[in-house]
Amino acid sequence: MQNNELFLLESIYLKHLAVMNGIHFTRREIDVMACLLHARGTSKIASLLNISPTTVVTHIQNVMEKLKCNSREGIIDFAERSHNLFIIKRYYAHLVVHTSFEKALKSCSRMTVSSLEAFNPITLIVYCKSSPHKETVPGPLRAHLKLAGNEVNVCLEFSPGGDAENKKRPQKSPQTSSLILILEKGSEIPQELHNVDFVDFSDQENYYFGVIDILKKLCPKIDFDGIFLEFKRVYETMEESSKLFPTHALLTQPSSLEKTHIDENIVHAKRKHRKIINKLVRQALSNLKKPFYIPAFLFIGLFGIGLGIGILVFQKIQESNKNQGQTILQLLPIRSDLIIPQESVLLPRSDLMNQINDKFKNKKSKGVQTIALVGPGGSGKTTLARGFAYQQKSTIIWEINAETHESLGASFESLAQALSQTDNDKKELRGILRIKDLPKREESLLQFVKKHLNSTPGWVLIYDNVENFVDVQDYFPRDRVTWGEGKVILTTRDGNIQNNTHIHEIIHIRNLTLAQKLTLFTKIMRHGSTNPSVSLQNDEVKRFLEKIPSFPLDVSVAAYYLKTTNISYSRYLQNLIQYSKHFETIQKNLLKEAGNYTKTRYSLITLSLQKLIDTHKDFSDLLLFISLLDSQNIPRDLLEKYKNQHVVDNFIYNLKKYSFITNESLPGSLNSTFSIHRNVQAISLLYLKKTLELENDKHSLQSIAEVLDNYLVNTVERDELSIMRLLYGHYETFLGHNDLLTDEIKGLLKGQLGIVNLCLANYVKSNICLEQSLKKLNRQDKKSLLRIAYLLRHLGRSNEYLGNYEIALSLLEQSLAIYKRYLPKTADEVAKSLIHLGRINRISGHYKESIDLCEKSLSIYKIYSPPNDLNIAQALANLGRTYFVLGHHEKAKNLFKQSLAIYKQNFGENHVGTAWCLIGLAMIASELGDNEQAKNLIEQSHIIYKKNFSENDAAIAFLLNCLGNVYICLGDYKKAKGFLERSLKIHESNFDKNNILTAQVLRDLGHLYFLENQFKMAEDLVTKALRVLQQNNHPESYMCLEILSDLYHAKSRQAKNKKGIQQSQDLNKQALVYLKQAMEIVNAHFPKDSPHVMRLQSKLKSLKESRG
Q: What is the per-residue pLDDT for 781?
């Protein structure tokens, strides 16, 4: 190894920088000075030197005190004026390389420890011919190997003939492994050690790569090339940028004290030589005679002119060399340190990189081209921006920290320092930095940067982490005339940046796919592993990754955490939920070791949350509200019931600013919603629990619960099923926060969840929720009693749909009794209860009672409600349905039309109430023989139902039944059968076998089979339906008996045609029995003027005549 290759930081410092201009500096002070000269801010210096920012400030103050200056510019001026400027720059290059090298050593320490167990204890025997390396190599080598996880013993040996030739060599024990290190060419190894492995250190390029080679010898299974990949990149970059300052030049420079002494000797010698020349000239002239004076003076004059010309030529050459040096400096690339993860742990995102490239290529116009990368913190925006910039061949590539106005100014100052390549530039910049008026200094600095960028087209600038574009707009390139031509990549969390006219293109950084998460996770887990073939492609890993946020930051920290601690996946997920301070500290440390990044998901989100809370006094309430709901499709209207519209507008704007919103409904959508990241919501709730002390203060939760309750009451009132379906998940999620809610809140909202289930036709769930709610309510005060009455009414409705008619009737009567106690204030609720009692009486076959109850309800509404109130429409439709069952079709038709007009006026064409009225009108048209109109009306209602219900909802079953009957009348038995069979399937999956509604479908399907002359199937189905209806003492059993009568009469005719006279008579006799039974039921339950009475009487007469 050459001497210059052992020339490390300590050597540079001791030989050249310890004393400058007679002032002594510590090694750390020189470190800081070198960083300041290269435009590094306090945080960057602290990161590079692995010390705190406070310590950096202390060192800067110490240097300023020694130099008698009061600014960082003063320190830079001192360094630039010193004779050691080139050395300081070379020192900085070594410092960056050295730091990167030690970082790589730390990252491989854990792996080398486990791999070197077979080598411990290890002895390195160092051979060289002489002792200059005695202090140079063993100390740093031992320290660096230890940093890499290798506890080694370094033994120094000298080749025969050296000054330590007779030094006794330590005996090697049988358990000790050895590795020989040869430092210099010609070093001889004793014969007895020829079988020991060795590294010829003299052949290595420099010390660093020699250490890597040693590690490869000691640990052949470790992929050190991968571990030191980033170091090699830094080394190559620094080596390239330092070609003007080669190491051998430093080695030939004398030390600071030596140089001062030599400079003084040179000045003294020049003066001495000048005196000698003057003395010789005077002596020569004094010895000349007068005739020779003129020639002598002429000779001296010509000699002087020649000498002057020579001096001028020499100065020109010097100036030319100086300008050439400055030109070379100007041609050097000016780049920020674009730190990106090494390839072995970097997730390739070629799709996004291609998007960036394509968007820049597609911009045909010259000038400033701008792309914004928008996404949450930790989504990989900065890495993508740096990756793109790293691939560019531009002369100027610079990253600007745009997070705050202060960091922006510091970044521009650093860029200005880097752009100052000539003496004139440096002089101009020093003048700018001395301006005391801050706005004027900032403007002058900006113009300085713009001037240099304008003269160097093709530059690339990264504006990283822009929080507020207003803060950076004055520093943002827009005008080609002043800024020149170049590319700008802006990274931000602010989703509102899409509205900025200065941004040409927006790329949203979306969540990672599961495959991408698995790729990144696997890369990190396998990186540097002693068992790289271990398989991570299993379902357990995928299930784990599905449960963590889908961003590179979260996947990376999970992988590093698991790799370091070796805990289980479930334990890590539990830590994420509980999130202790200790857990976050470990995450930060792992991120710092992996890539000098310390922002965890928790810290990123909580910092933004606090900024959000500080923006407006109501934002903490709104944050709590959305943190308690489902994170997806949050109705904006719900927030506006809690706070006013302007506050909500501002709140959503700020949510976008921090990339909390993942998705929004389109402008103008019927239900305006937005979604937030699930992990944002989880961390937000965790943070708010602590800051708002929710477990002790229930006031905020109570007010939110009341908003949710009132909102759903109004939604149910208006039968807005699409909104109910949207709200369902939110109410379930809210009730899931069991530890925060009081019994009163649980009772309140559990009941509302039951009512939503009722409206969405989830009747079993509705019953469960309503019963649980009633158990939690206090039954003493008026408010609770009215709430109980409200829940009893809906529980009665739920039992009605389940076919529990007696229970339903009892519950509705209890509800009505409570409401009547508080009349007239509860008149509206009394009327609603009467409607539902009328409905259940109709379904139970008590038609007269049903009509009386509905008419009472209408009379109350006429007094207390406006003429087009929704409840009036419900009462009219229920009354119309009863008259239809009784056969009074014209009266029913008129009532349905009145109801339909109210529904359309209030809700338009697509409301479920509108569909219900259309179904009623379709059934009437079918009974009146207008089958085409019936078809048109029923298909309109079908479209509405499909918009409001899923295919298997119980509500759909009623529509399908009606569709089947309409198509029976149209003679399209195939379609009719399809609808009826689907209806039956839904009924059987939602209700028990004795349900009246199921029996009605069985009856209609049986009737269809009868019309198709499939008598056996028809009789089985109708008989089954009849049994259920008779068990429930339902008057509609007459319809089954009527069908059976028709069926037996048809079979009688068939038997008669086949000459089976006796069989025909028997069958006709049974037909008559069925018809008489039907007539008895009709006479008992229907008015005498009912068409059903008249129809059956006519059939009975005809059947008797056919017997005669």
A: 78
End-to-end CA, the chain: 131
The three-class DSSP label of residue 222 is coil
Q: Tokens for 643, please give them.
A: 């706070």
Q: How far is the C-alpha of 1088 from the C-alpha of 337, rounded, in Å?
A: 97
Query: What are residue 506's DSSP bridge partners?
Result: 372
Q: What pLDDT is stored for residue 171 in this prediction?
A: 46
**pLDDT of the residue at 652:** 92
- Of the two residues 864 and 238, the one the predictor is more confident about is 864
**According to the model, what pLDDT value does residue 291 have?**
56
Q: How far apart are CA 701 and CA 741, in angstroms?
A: 7
Give the model confidence (pLDDT) of 1006-1024 as tens digits: 999 999 999 999 999 999 9
Amino acid at 256: S
State the Cα–Cα distance between residues 787 and 806, nearest whole angstrom. Answer: 22
Q: What is the pLDDT of residue 117?
A: 45
Query: What is the CB neighbour count within 10 angstroms for residue 546?
Result: 10
Query: Alpha carbon of 519 to those of 443, 448, 533, 555: distances in Å?
Result: 47, 45, 15, 10
Assigned token pair, 391 = 């691939």
CATH 3.40.50.2000 fits 335-508, yes or no: no
Structure confidence at residue 240 (pLDDT): 64
Q: What pLDDT does residue 596 have? A: 54
pLDDT at 61 over 90: no
CA proximity to 605, closest of 572, 628, 627:
627
Count other C-beta atoms under 10 Å from residue 206's C-beta. 18
Element (H, E) at 518: helix 514-526
Q: Which residues pair with 634 in a beta bridge?
A: 674
As separate numbers, helices (DSSP H) first and strands (DSSP E) second, the chain gives 49, 15
Give the class (CATH, top level) of 906-1107: mainly alpha
pLDDT in tens, 822-876: 888 899 999 999 999 999 998 888 889 999 999 999 999 989 888 888 889 999 9
Average pLDDT for the chain: 81
Joined together, the tokens standing for residue 37 give 């000269």
Residue 865 has a pLDDT of 87
Locus of tokens 């002239």: 285
Beta strands in 282-416 (DSSP E): 334-335, 368-374, 396-401
What is residue 459's DSSP assignment?
E
* Per-residue CA distances from 226 to 165, 213, 232, 346 (Å): 41, 13, 10, 12
If you average pLDDT over residues 370-396, what whole number do you get? 90
Read off the DSSP letter of residue 1090.
Answer: -
As given in the structure block, the two tokens for residue 141 are 């080598």
- The beta strands (E) that lie in 431-572 are given as 459-466, 486-492, 505-508
Where does 335-433 have alpha helices with state H? 350-361, 381-391, 405-419, 423-433
Which stretch of DSSP H or E encloses residue 36?
helix 27-37
Instruction: Write the DSSP string, 118-135.
Output: GG-SEEEEEEESSSTTTT
How confident is the model over 155-186, as pLDDT tens digits?
Answer: 655 554 444 444 444 444 444 556 655 555 55
Name beta bridge partners: 738: none
Domain boundaries, the chain: 3-21+82-250, 256-331, 335-508, 514-599, 906-1107
Cβ(7)–Cβ(250) below 8 Å: yes
Distances (CA, A) of 807 to 797, 798, 904: 10, 10, 34
β strands within 543-650, DSSP E: 634-635
Are the C-beta atoms of residues 704 and 712 closer than 8 Å to each other?
Answer: no
Distance between CA 941 and CA 1088 in Å, rounded? 33
Say what the pLDDT of residue 111 is.
61
Q: Establish whether domains 335-508 and 906-1107 are of one fold.
A: no
DSSP state of 1019: H
Residue 477 near residue 457 (C-beta atoms within 8 A): no
Q: Is there a cis peptide before residue 121, judged by omega within 30 degrees of 0?
A: yes
The pLDDT assigned to 1080 comes to: 94
Whether the per-residue pLDDT at 810 is higher than 90: the answer is yes
Listed in sequence order, the residues at least 6 apart from 875 whose beta carbon sits closer than 8 Å to its beta carbon are 831, 835, 838, 854, 857, 858, 861
Q: Looking at the predicted structure, is the pLDDT value of residue 326 above 60?
A: no
